[in-house]
Amino acid sequence: MAEKPAIVLVHGFWGGAAHWGKVIAELHRRGFGSLHAVENPLTSLADDAERTRKMVKQIDGPVVLVGHSYGGAVITEAGDLPNVTGLVYIAAFAPDAGESPGRISQEKPPAAIENLAPDSDGYLWVKQDKFHESFAQDLSAEEALVMAVTQKAPLASTFGDDVTAPTWRAKPSWYQISTGDRMIHPDNERRMAERMNPRRTIELDASHASPASQPGPVTDLIEEAAGAAA
């Protein structure tokens, strides 16, 4: 049996690498030994893509890049390295050339857009008292509270950063849609998935936080992408 490829997990806005915790545990149970989770600064798409590229360059052999939320824009920009064999989008942005997450969101605003609040330093937050209903309505109140308090806010300007050369046009891709997503409109997810012509698209009855609420099916999709890479 071919050795399993490395998995590099890329988080999105309002959370760090730990948002992948349940998926990491599930991948480990399934025999994936080379697991990596990028901690991106969320200061610009260029900064985040470069941080992700640096991690991928440290890995020998094939890599499957997995992006959640804004992390999908990051893997779209950073997936051009030759050892990246597949891209997995988990309730994620998949912009085309000249597109930004902000532009996509403006075209079809998500349900929770009014629950975002900028601060005086230019960072954008999900209001703590609205985090559960906005980001993770299918998690317990306690789990959502921890996410709300530990959220990692992006610079608001990052929303407007355009993708240059979308790697989903050149690399095999997979996509998971969250039908209960209130941070990215589910119809936007469907549109982005359809135009990339992925190997597989799945829909889950899940919030934006599908890596935490549906780690089994999310891991199934990653495992399929890894199998194709191997």
Describe this entry's structure for a reader:
By secondary structure, the chain is an alpha/beta fold. It contains nine helices and eight strands. It has helices at 21-29, 45-57, 71-78, 101-107, 131-135, 141-149, 186-196, 210-213, 215-229, and strands spanning 6-10, 35-38, 63-69, 84-92, 116-118, 124-126, 173-178, 200-204. Strands 2-1-3-4-7-8 form a six-stranded parallel sheet, sandwiched between helices. The longest helix is centred in the last third of the chain and has 15 residues, at 215-229. The chain is globular and about 50 Å long. The protein starts with 5 loop residues before the first strand and ends with a helix. The model has no long low-confidence stretch (mean pLDDT 96).
The helix/strand order is: EHEHEHEHEEHHEHEHH
- This entry's quaternary arrangement is single chain
Gyration radius, rounded: 16 Å
Largest sheet: 6 strands, parallel
Q: Spans with pLDDT under 50 lasting ≥5 residues? A: none
**Percent strand:** 15-25%
Strand order of the largest sheet: 2-1-3-4-7-8
Q: What structural category arises from helix and sheet content?
A: alpha/beta
